Amino acid sequence: MNDSSKSKRDDARKALNQLWKPGCDFLGTEFAILGGAMSWVSERNLVSAISNAGGFGVIACGAMSPERLEEEIIATKALTKRPYGVNLITMHPELDKLVDVCLAHNVSHIVLAGGVPTGATIRRVRDGGARAIGFAPALALGRRLIKLGIEALVIEGSEAGGHVGPVSLNVLAQEILPHISEVPVFVAGGLGRGDAVLSYLEMGAAGAQLGTLFAASSESIAHDNFKNAFRRANARDAAVSVQLDERFPVIPVRGLTNAASRSFMKHQADMLNKFQNGEIEREKAQLEIEHFWAGALRKAVIEGDVENGSVMAGQSVGMVKEIKPVSEIMSVLVDQAVEALEKRETLFS
């Protein structure tokens, strides 16, 4: 690399650092890239790897008990000295105890997901010395959360894996980013390249959250079958679960189409027929539908049964071509953003 090329690269890197400085300052990281909180995947090994690579790892608490979460936090602290966070589901019956565990172990950031957190919970987090992050699927909710004391927002598009809303990141970004400047806003959903992240930074985002790329990393404890399913998949293979009847609502989940997803459709139809024939009460049928996926994610992630388990993945799965270390994934993302800035400078110089 000659002096001129090096100078352009340095200028592009400085420009990127300036663009995501609000996110880096908020997270305390080198790069404003968060790891998405994925049940069974976002545990000590992946979380510490993301943080050690300059990003921000996030433990997925999910249905953990306070004792189990404490064990995971202690194990994570032993693997990294850099900042990381914990994602808590607001509907968890022991939410207050989970918050207290995080605070007792000096977790710097708590992500409140899976519903709208109460002002009391947000105050509990902040009064305990942690930063509070929330999810905003719409502008109005984002503003409401800020009034309640949320210090940063994540806007996640329907391209993401797992439980998703109905609106794409492309639309959410246009709806929300121009109108919220009081707190850092991180974008998520379908992101697999650094130049795509750059485009949202230039719209006003403070950083980005990625899950699918990291789920297929070397440090991820996911079964090889799970990672290889990602590697073979195309974007269109990551489909959202379908609801057959409005009387039996289904929370949409994006994952790779397999035998389990086809069986879920049949299961819904069976429950619907039984209800219509008077063989089962509505509440019982709803419960049977909701319980279909119980244990299905663990079956895929840990046991490697990618046909009968739930292979949750975002549409960025089509960009997973090989299993790489987290540090390499992070480096590639940053290089792609820097190269995009370099090309632009060359184009207009």
UniProtKB/TrEMBL annotation:
<keyword id="KW-0288">FMN</keyword>
<keyword id="KW-0560">Oxidoreductase</keyword>
<dbReference type="GO" id="GO:0051213">
    <property type="term" value="F:dioxygenase activity"/>
</dbReference>
<dbReference type="Pfam" id="PF03060">
    <property type="entry name" value="NMO"/>
</dbReference>
<keyword id="KW-0285">Flavoprotein</keyword>
<dbReference type="GO" id="GO:0018580">
    <property type="term" value="F:nitronate monooxygenase activity"/>
</dbReference>
<keyword id="KW-0223">Dioxygenase</keyword>
<protein>
    <submittedName>
        <fullName>2-nitropropane dioxygenase</fullName>
    </submittedName>
</protein>
<dbReference type="InterPro" id="IPR004136">
    <property type="entry name" value="NMO"/>
</dbReference>
<dbReference type="InterPro" id="IPR013785">
    <property type="entry name" value="Aldolase_TIM"/>
</dbReference>
